Amino acid sequence: MKSLILNFLAVLFLFATSGCKQNAEKDGGTPVAYSSFGDSVTPDNRWGAVEMDKKFTGLRKTDTIPVKFTSTILEVCPKKGCWMKVQLDGGREAMVRFKDYGFFVPKDASGEVVIEGKAYVEEMSVKDLRHYAKDAGKTEEEIAQITEPRITYAVEANGVLIKQ
After folding, report:
1. Where is the signal peptide (predicted)?
2. 20 to 30 A from 132, CA-CA: which of 1, 8, 66, 126?
3. What digits encode the pLDDT tens for the residues 108-119?
4. Which residue intervals of the chain are DSSP H helices?
5. Hey, where are the domains in the chain?
6. Architecture of the domain defined by 22-163
7. Mean pLDDT value across residues 71-78
């Protein structure tokens, strides 16, 4: 009888917490928990950062492709969490912004991330580069050194999972 009650309470607890925006997967038999932001994303069927880097190198400035990949967070906007930079292969990075400015990630987010959205290559203007440098807390001298636009790998994410 006691085990029946405990099982009932465990099921009730799982049911009550299933409304949280969290996903989990198994990593070698161990559950992996994610915090979810934006649209619902599952951690399955994703590319790694190396494969995503290869996809980017094949894009022209007019191309846009749907993507779902995992990477490591390098930097998050310290003001609002309204953008982040993630690691690709060979020291390259991708700038991730959030669809329609519709969600943000925690300003202190770090570690593994799963991103779903669309990838493209853009020429980021000096004005935008300076804006993001200012958001990131760069000095006035560092910002003043930004004098030319830069080709950037970019992602407009509609959903993000951050490993807890």
Report:
1. 1-23
2. 66
3. 999 999 999 999
4. 2-17, 49-57, 126-135, 140-144
5. 22-163
6. Beta Barrel (2.40)
7. 96
